[in-house]
Structure formats: structure tokens, C-alpha cells
């Protein structure tokens, strides 16, 4: 009996030893220069998944400035499969979820190398010097990541990202056109000003007239009830711990001005808008659901994006004319700089159009293999990349009545098939 127990114990120890042995992927990751902090993650959709850190130059052109650690998530299918680099524009916590899966990876059975954007969450240099938060530096981050991981994954490479991540996909190609084989940016704007101007005109024409009227009437009704809505907003913000650097009256104005953009961006059905004769709480609750003022609060999570928007990515303004009689402010001009930048940068950030021309000229003068996906009613499509004549590889697809949620999978069947066929053709080349 003792011999049997000993034998069983040895068998169990061998099984545990095999289970704990590093996989081929983990061994390869450990051998990559600049990689540290490798952690195995749970996943329901990939054979293996790891979180790791890659050492990056804070300023790639001046190594003496120092380095920081950037978070990368690797979702592994196989060394013989293509690899998608996800050029996330913000923080990357969601990629840690066991059910995370990039759309291209799902559709084409690829590996994923997901890169958290610099100056977000754990990928933030210390001390935080805003001078090094630039699109060019982010492109160098991605170049280093892709160059490093090509030592493991040597098949086709695809870059992709959504929204600011789609912007990042595009600017990355402009700086390093040959790093990947092709790119699929989703809902990626190309703005040419900190208050570009095209978004406001877009909102005057988007959708049906009755939809725009319904949105406008709701805005007016909220502002007409300022005396009762404002105390509700004040209490709400106090409960949430929101603090602002402008009066609460102006915060109400900004939330109402933001409302149409938010409605159209996410394709929200205007039929959910409460009737104008609804009680105050019903109207207020709807406003908070669509256009909560956390966006304008101090210390919110998008502050690094705001810095880039004010400096080089561009943004949108508000047309106050249709609501002027009901607003407390006389102008919304400069609200991003005045309300949403870090205090130490207020009045010190000047927009530089260089990035717009860098990307524009790259797309105009070349024909990169890129498929741009947009939604028809998404205000960000107002500043989509232009249709350049004579392009074969550079393709733009606009989902009818689509929003910021436009994806290949929810495209009309004919558009989806064209996109799938094109990507498969590029993968087979």
C-alpha cells in the first residue's frame, strides 16, 4: 500500500511539473530584449495569453531622457498565423478580460499583440512630463513593439485600432509605412484644428430633420428648466465626487451642448428621448445617461487624450447659436483648453497642424494597403480621411446609419464580403 501511494505521489508530481513547465511561447517571450514582468493570463478564447512590459524610450530621439515600461498583452494562436497589433489609443485594462478578443483576430484567426498607449494607466513615465506625449513618440513605441515581436511572429502583420486607436493606426503607418503588411483603422478621424469646425456642420445635417428637431427640443427643455435642473446637477456631481474649474451653470451648458454629439456618436435611438412635458427627474436622468459631466471634471481618465487633442490630434467645437437664448455662456470657444486640460497646461498648449499634414500627405502621395471603417451618423466621420482618386489599396467603407460602433461584422452583407475578400487576398499574397 505504501509503495502504491509513493508511486501515485510521484505521478502527481510529474503531472504538476509538466503543467508548470513554461510553454514554447513563454520561453520565447523571456528571450526577447527589453521584455519583463511576464504574467500568464486567463483566457476563454485563445490557447495562451500573457501580460508583459516592454522597455520604451521616453524620447526615442534622446535616449538620455530615460525609459518607461509599457504594457503589452499577447494573445497567442500559433506561430504559423498572422499577427494583429492593436494600437490602443487609451488604457488597456479591458484587454486583460478573459473574454477579450480583437475583431480581426476573431475573423481571421490571428495572434494579437495589444499595446497600451503611453501616458495611460500603467504605461505612464514618471515623472510625468507632458512634453513627451506626442504622436511621433507613440509611433516609435509601436515600431519597437512590432520589431521586437517579429522575432517570434514572422508571418503577416496587421495594425488596427478603434477611434483614437484608429488614429494611432493611421499615424503609425505614416511614420513607419513598412512595419506592417496592411492596416484596418476603425472610426478614425483626421482633424485639422483643435476646434475643427466640420463636426458642427455635420450635426446640422445628420439623420432626419425630425430626429434633429427632437434632440434640439430636449436641449431647449433642459435649459428652460435651469432653475430646477441645476440643483439636481449640483447634487449629482457632489455625490460622484466631481470637481470642476468653471461654475456649475457652465457645466450644465457644456453637458447640453455635448448631448447631440453623444447621441449620434453612439447611434442612440432618438425615440428614447423623454417627451418635453416629462417631469424634471425624467429629463435629468436622461441627460446624465447620455451626456454625464464627468467628461469635464478635474482628474478624469481622458486627461492625456485632452493634452494630445489640444496639441496635435485636434477635436471639435460647439455651435451655440441655436441655443444662445438659453445658455449662461456667451461663447464655448476654447473650452477644451480652459476646462479639460491639466491645470499646469492651461493657456500653455498651442495646436500644431503638423500631424494632420503628415498623415494627409502620406495617404495622398502613396497607396498603402488600408481599409478605413466609418459609421454614417457618427460625428467623427465628419473628419474622416479623404477619398483620394486613383487609389487601389486605400479603401473607405461607410456603414449606412452606422455609429462609432461600426465594425466589419455589423456591416451590410455586401460590404462585409468585400472587406473580407480583400483582407483574405492580402493575407494570401
Overall average residue pLDDT: 95
Number of strands: 9
Q: What spatial form do the alpha-carbon principal axes imply?
A: globular
The overall number of domains is 2
Please report the number of helical segments. 14
Counting helices, strands and paired strands, the structural category is alpha/beta
* Low-pLDDT segments, ≥5 res: 1-20
CATH homologous superfamily designation of the largest domain: Alpha/Beta hydrolase fold, catalytic domain
How would you describe this protein?
The chain has 429 residues and is α/β, with parallel strands linked by helices. The protein has 2 domains: 22-191 and 354-428, Alpha/Beta hydrolase fold, catalytic domain (Rossmann fold, 3-Layer(aba) Sandwich); 198-345, no CATH class. Helix content is 40%, strand content 14%. The protein is built from 14 helices and 9 strands. It has helices at 2-20, 24-31, 103-108, 135-149, 164-175, 198-203, 209-224, 226-240, 248-265, 280-291, 303-313, 335-339, 354-365, 413-428, and strands at residues 35-40, 48-57, 67-76, 83-87, 111-115, 157-162, 182-186, 370-375, 394-399. It has a 9-stranded mixed sheet, with helices on both faces. β6 (157-162), α5 (164-175) and β7 form a beta-alpha-beta unit. The chain is globular and about 65 Å long.
Strands, helices and their partners?
Elements: H1 2-20, H2 24-31, E1 35-40, E2 48-57, E3 67-76, E4 83-87, H3 103-108, E5 111-115, H4 135-149, E6 157-162, H5 164-175, E7 182-186, H6 198-203, H7 209-224, H8 226-240, H9 248-265, H10 280-291, H11 303-313, H12 335-339, H13 354-365, E8 370-375, E9 394-399, H14 413-428
Parallel strand pairs: 4-5, 4-6, 6-7, 7-8, 8-9
Antiparallel strand pairs: 1-2, 2-3, 3-5
Helix pairs in contact: 4-5, 5-13, 7-9
Amino acid at each position: 500500500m505504501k509503495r502504491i501511494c509513493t508511486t501515485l505521489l510521484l505521478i502527481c508530481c510529474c503531472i504538476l511539473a509538466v503543467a508548470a513547465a513554461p510553454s514554447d511561447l513563454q520561453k520565447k517571450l523571456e528571450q526577447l530584449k527589453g521584455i519583463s514582468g511576464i504574467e500568464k493570463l486567463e483566457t476563454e478564447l485563445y490557447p495562451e495569453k500573457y501580460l508583459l512590459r516592454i522597455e520604451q524610450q521616453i524620447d526615442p530621439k534622446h535616449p538620455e531622457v530615460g525609459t518607461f515600461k509599457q504594457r503589452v498583452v499577447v494573445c497567442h494562436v500559433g506561430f504559423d498565423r498572422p499577427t494583429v497589433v492593436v494600437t490602443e489609443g487609451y488604457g488597456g485594462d479591458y484587454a486583460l478580460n478573459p473574454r477579450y478578443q480583437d475583431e480581426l483576430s476573431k475573423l481571421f484567426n490571428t495572434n494579437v499583440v495589444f499595446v497600451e498607449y503611453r501616458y495611460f494607466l500603467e504605461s505612464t513615465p514618471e515623472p510625468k512630463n507632458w512634453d513627451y506625449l506626442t504622436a511621433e513618440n507613440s509611433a516609435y513605441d509601436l515600431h519597437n513593439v512590432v520589431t521586437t515581436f517579429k522575432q517570434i511572429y514572422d508571418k503577416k502583420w496587421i495594425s488596427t485600432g478603434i477611434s483614437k486607436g484608429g488614429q494611432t493606426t493611421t499615424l503609425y503607418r505614416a511614420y513607419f509605412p513598412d512595419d506592417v503588411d496592411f492596416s484596418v483603422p476603425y472610426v478614425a478621424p483626421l482633424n485639422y484644428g483643435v476646434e475643427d469646425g466640420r463636426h458642427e456642420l455635420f450635426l446640422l445635417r445628420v439623420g432626419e430633420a425630425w430626429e434633429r428637431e427632437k434632440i434640439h427640443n430636449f436641449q431647449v427643455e433642459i435649459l428652460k428648466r435651469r432653475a430646477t435642473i441645476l440643483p439636481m446637477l449640483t447634487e449629482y456631481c457632489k455625490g460622484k465626487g466631481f470637481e470642476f474649474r468653471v461654475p456649475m451653470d457652465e457645466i450644465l451648458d457644456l453637458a447640453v451642448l455635448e448631448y447631440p454629439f453623444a447621441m449620434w456618436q453612439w447611434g442612440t435611438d432618438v425615440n428614447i428621448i423623454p417627451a418635453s412635458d416629462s417631469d424634471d427627474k425624467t429629463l435629468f436622468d436622461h441627460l446624465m445617461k447620455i451626456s454625464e459631466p464627468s467628461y469635464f471634471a478635474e482628474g478624469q481618465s481622458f486627461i492625456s487624450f485632452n493634452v494630445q487633442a489640444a496639441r496635435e490630434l485636434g477635436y471639435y467645437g460647439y455651435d451655440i447659436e441655436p441655443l444662445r437664448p438659453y445658455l449662461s455662456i456667451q461663447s464655448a470657444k476654447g473650452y477644451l483648453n480652459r476646462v479639460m486640460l491639466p491645470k499646469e497646461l492651461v493657456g500653455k498648449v498651442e495646436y500644431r497642424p503638423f500631424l494632420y499634414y503628415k498623415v494627409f500627405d502620406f495617404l495622398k502621395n502613396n497607396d498603402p494597403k488600408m481599409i478605413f471603417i466609418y459609421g454614417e451618423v457618427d460625428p467623427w466621420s465628419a473628419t474622416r480621411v479623404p477619398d483620394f482618386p486613383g487609389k487601389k489599396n486605400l479603401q473607405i467603407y461607410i456603414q449606412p446609419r452606422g455609429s462609432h460602433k461600426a465594425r466589419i461584422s455589423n456591416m451590410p452583407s455586401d460590404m462585409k464580403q468585400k472587406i473580407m475578400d480583400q483582407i483574405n487576398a492580402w493575407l494570401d499574397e
